[in-house]
Design brief:
CATH architecture of the largest domain: Orthogonal Bundle
Order of helices and strands: EEHHHHH
CATH topology of the largest domain: Cytochrome Bc1 Complex, Chain D, domain 2
Radius of gyration: 35 Å
CATH superfamily of the largest domain: Cytochrome c-like domain
Structural class: mainly alpha
Largest sheet: 2 strands, antiparallel
Strand order of the largest sheet: 1-2
Bound molecules: heme C
């Protein structure tokens, strides 16, 4: 039941007056109905939103890389001292993170030796822990060989205490208190 429209002529070119085909109009109307329906489904009923997606991604990441466990010391001394698991984990982390500046066996490179008797900032666990966590700024540095980066965020308390447990196992001049 295509409707006939007025035929138009411009400069000898004739535009036929045919109505749009029925299938075309049907698709047009269906698309509007599906579009509205989809918007209602998406916002009201589906869980395809970016917030849910983000939360799922975070959960997946945290499962793969659990957030570092916080180890708290009561009196400033390293609670992981003498713990054999901590010592071997600490050695791995030391070699990955500290060795570039302090030498593979802590003998010292740009950073000072950590296996000799000299502790230029002090030889107590609490002092050493704070140095490693917070780093040594240029103004605090005593050797004039530059600052030391903080490891609070990259390692966190548990791994820092593990590294210190390894250091203490190699150097008995590092004292608990
Ligand atoms: C980018 C180089 C660099 C890295 C990486 C680094 N340090 Fe240091 N560290 C230094 C420097 C330089 C000093 C000396 C600062 C000064 O002049 O007082 C230092 C000093 C120290 C001291 C004090 C030593 C003393 O005699 O009092 C300790 C302890 C220490 N670092 C441990 C670590 C540990 C553990 C790591 C790894 C988690 C680490 N450092 C990573 C450069 C580094």
């Amino acid at each position: 039941m295509a409707q006939q429209h007025e035929e138009k002529e411009f400069d000898g070119i004739i535009q036929a007056g045919n109505d749009l085909p029925a299938w075309y109009k049907h698709i047009f109307v269906y698309m509007i109905v599906i579009g509205v329906g989809y918007a209602i489904y998406f916002h009201g009923f589906s869980n395809w939103g970016t917030e849910e997606y983000y939360a799922a991604q975070v959960a997946e990441h945290e499962e793969k890389f659990p957030p570092a466990k916080a180890v708290v010391s009561e009196d400033g001394s390293n609670p992981l001292r003498g713990d054999s698991v901590a010592i071997s984990e600490g050695e791995k982390n030391y070699k990955a993170v500290c060795a570039a500046c302090h030498g593979l066996n802590a003998e010292g490179v740009v950073g000072p030796s950590l296996v000799d008797k000299e502790w230029i900032h002090g030889n107590k666990d609490e002092i050493v822990y704070n140095l490693i966590m917070k780093g040594i700024g240029v103004e605090q540095a005593k050797l004039g060989r530059g600052p030391m980066p903080a490891h609070e965020n990259s390692l966190g308390s548990e791994k820092v205490y593990q590294v210190m447990a390894w250091l203490a196992s190699k150097n008995d001049t590092l004292q608990p208190k």
